[in-house]
């Protein structure tokens, strides 16, 4: 009999690919949605790459409430907790981000340990294993924990750190059959299954459409969504992954490099991509006087810190693809799905 894997937040970008690859791998999959009305959208998205008939089921459960989680994990062998309840939160309010992320993870773990689930793989973020200072250069690994008390941290980084820390603390105090593994991705790009949940790939869409007329001096550790799912599945099944953190970042790539990759690789479809880099001072001035939303990115200007994926490569045999391939596949997928307006 095939193992049953629960994937949280089935309508999400990463979750959709997790569901698809699990089905391709012969697993039976159950996924959570916040309401019944989201089921068909998940089926439609997954159906673009694999037939889910008879092997995909649903449970209604919300990370912000206790109801439904025991039913969601009943009869489940493993859990991929990839969902995050941050979509509607005000990113400027620390509590609006921290409480849902932390409490949602604990709801999943409580239900999983009660049900005796074999392993939970939780998606954290590389931002939870980063030096507090964005100015720090060098390479860090999973042994580093971001300091959540650093007053310079943006709320998102603090929320991801505290949520993962709470998960490990919970497991330390709940010995039993259930094992925890965490995966800490970088900036996730790659092909889409649906235009309904674009996530971070919207950045590429803005570049292609010409909406981003200037590029800030920001570097991203780009990981392909397909490679991120691959490392989740490896972490789910490898005996050596139990109780471990795994960074899953990709090549460090400046956004201006991304722009050049798109402009050079897309032909006529890349004609609107701007490669003009905006000076740091201009971004800071705009954040202060014209666009407060830019305040979230100003600490990252010029940051060169990178993360080592040696552990995932050594323990799990993980091999991510080049960033340029991911960026172009992402762009072509957006164009194919009609997610970019060309004039």
UniProtKB/TrEMBL annotation:
One Gene Ontology term of the molecular function aspect: oxidoreductase activity, acting on the CH-OH group of donors, NAD or NADP as acceptor
Domain NAD-dependent epimerase/dehydratase: start-end pairs: 5-243
Key words of the record: Oxidoreductase
A Pfam family this chain is assigned to: Epimerase
Entry's family note: Belongs to the NAD(P)-dependent epimerase/dehydratase family. Dihydroflavonol-4-reductase subfamily.
PANTHER family membership: NAD DEPENDENT EPIMERASE/DEHYDRATASE (PTHR10366), STEROL-4-ALPHA-CARBOXYLATE 3-DEHYDROGENASE, DECARBOXYLATING (PTHR10366:SF564)
Protein name: NAD-dependent epimerase/dehydratase family protein
